[in-house]
Here is the input.
Amino acid sequence: MNGPNLQELMLLYLADALEEREHALVKSRLAAGDPEAVEALREARELFASLPVALDPVEPGPEVFDALMRQAEAGQLRGDVSAAPPTTRRPAETHRPAPPAPATPATPATRSGGWVFTLAAAAGFAIAASAVVFFLARWDAQSQLQRVQDEAADLRRQVQAQAERLDAQSDQIDAQREQLAAQDGVITGQAEQIRAQGDRIADQGAELERVAFSVQAQRAVTDELRTLFANQRNDLMVLMRREEEVSRVLSLLSAPRLEAYVLAGTDSAPDAAGRMFFDPQTGRLRLTIDGLDPAEAGRTYQAWFVLDDGAGAPVSLGVFNTNNAGEVVFEATLDATPDQIALAAVSVEPAGGVPAPTGAIVIAGGAQ
Amino acid sequence: MEQIARQDTAAFRRLFDRHAPLLLALGCRVLNDRQLAEDVLNEVFLELWQSPQKYDAGRSSPRTYLVLVMRRRSIDRLRSRRSGIKTVPLYASSTDNNPGRSNHEDAFADAEERQRIRSVLAGLPEAQRRAIELSFFEGKTNVEIAESTGEPLGTIKGRIRLGLIRLRDQLRTMGTKGGRP
Here is the structure.
């Protein structure tokens, strides 16, 4: 993960301070039971829960634990506890009965008999009326008290029922929240898998591109190797030809009765010089010339030899031309194998050669 | 916790004595009402006594478990009250501070840890500390904090991120782990 490390992520997860993508990632790892994530969450919880340590502790009174134990022993359920009147309440102050009203001082009685009777009758009536009023008022107060108590009991039942409904709804909401969290974890996990597959496909694509590039590079290398091989084969062919030539030259030069001839340019080609080797046993000869300009267009050089008796006509060895450097190597094998060639010469002739020399001699020489 | 799972009253009492002051302080801070906080404290411990299997030692220490449950319940209760809540600073002094604990070593260690965490919190920039307080102690979502402060959501998230990371780093530097059993 980039950015914060795993424990920081868990800390921020508890504080609901994660970005959506980070939140999904954390949920996915927790849903997968990733032990590293679980441990990081545990550590983050510890830190998170240490915040209230900064508060001054508040000692509960002894009645709190006593009330708790009474409820625990009574086996009350949680819902009952929350709905029940708080059992940790401190005893409310009780209203003490009002002190009796001070007695009214007695009025001095009159000694008059009529007054006495009248006063007694009035007092009796007043007492009777007061008694009636008192009993009526008491009866009304008791009725009202009963109604109020009934209404209060009804309200308590309603509150109790409402609290139970709220608890049930709260439990349902909690269950739905857990289901949603689980679904969220599953969806997040699937999204993560899809992302991972996408990443794998992208990796494979990149790998294919690398392979294609490599193949292209190897093809280029192969082409270069093929060219190099062709060049080396050409070089080899040249070497083989030279080797054949060298073999032929060595073979010729090793002939036991080899004859050597030195040819010199005539006035027609004063810079020309040549040398000819001839094996009378095999009839093979090799003529090398330099300093002789190539023949003009429509013309050719033709080599001749004359036997030592000088009686015969010149025998044609064949036609050739020199290269731009004025050089030529000319090899031939005679059908006849004379013991001695008296003279070797080269003349300029029409292209294709002639049966007997007609043009000027450009180079000629005899045996050494 | 194993003893509590076996309904050992003495162990339950020890756990209550050990953590109730912290939890009640948290409840008072969130609810700003001691009576309500005591009710929530009662619920939390009663639930632990009746359903000790809900605690998973692999997930957290007992203190962390109790703190997180107390916080969640207090915030739920706060939201259900739907009334204006007066907030108090994070470490306002309490009139009920009573250091008379049966275990003096625990009390001393708690005070030491409290001092460390206060020191680190005091070292945070005001805006970061306030954002953490609103999130942790008042249960406000980042969106609610952004709306109440009139600042962008990203700014609020950034403050909480930076504040928490800095808090963690400094507590590590000071040698205080996130929680103790």
